[in-house]
Amino acid sequence: MERPEPELIRQSWRVVSRSPLEHGTVLFARLFDLEPDLLPLFQYNCRQFSSPEDCLSSPEFLDHIRKVMLVIDAAVTNVEDLSSLEEYLAGLGRKHRAVGVKLSSFSTVGESLLYMLEKCLGSAFTPAVRAAWSRLYGAVVQAMSRGWDGE
């Protein structure tokens, strides 16, 4: 019998969350491969990164990776009641919009998330797991997209 979706999400995330920084780095390396134009959005102390590698090894960016993984962790924890995160996610959307992130870039982030999960889980990344994560990520982005409302 197919396990219900929340269980698939929790089970697969358990594997990832053992080393969030490592897997988060895979996610962002993939993101910069797919959408190199996002790199200039990440500036700390007005310093522009010369390459994705330069960015991925900076302490400030590693901190950003940790935060992103914590947001995913919160979504997994609240997978059966994402509405409890709605205000938080809308605020996160507003923050991203303020620094010039386009809502459309989040579909590339979604692709990068699925890529990371596939690399991490291997054969355990079944079509059912992929579909469950696609739905969860879609719901998170929908909540975040409220931060772009009224543009």
Q: Any key phrases for this structure?
A:
151 residues; mainly alpha; Globin-like; GDP-dissociation inhibitor activity; heme binding; oxygen binding
Summarize the structure.
With 151 residues, this protein is mostly helical.
What does this structure look like?
One of its GO terms (biological process) is oxygen transport. It catalyses: Fe(III)-heme b-[protein] + nitric oxide + H2O = Fe(II)-heme b-[protein] + nitrite + 2 H(+). Belongs to the globin family. Its main location: cytoplasm. It comes from Equus caballus (Horse). It is a single chain. The protein is mainly alpha-helical and 151 residues long. It has one domain (5-146): Globin-like, CATH 1.10.490.10. Helices cover 66% and strands 3% of the residues. Strands 1-2 form a two-stranded antiparallel sheet. A hairpin with a 2-residue loop joins strand 1 (43-44) and strand 2 (47-48). Helix 1 (5-16) packs across helix 7 (127-144), helix 2 (20-34) packs across helix 4 and helix 6 (105-121) packs antiparallel against helix 7. The relative contact order is 0.17. The model has no long low-confidence stretch (mean pLDDT 94).
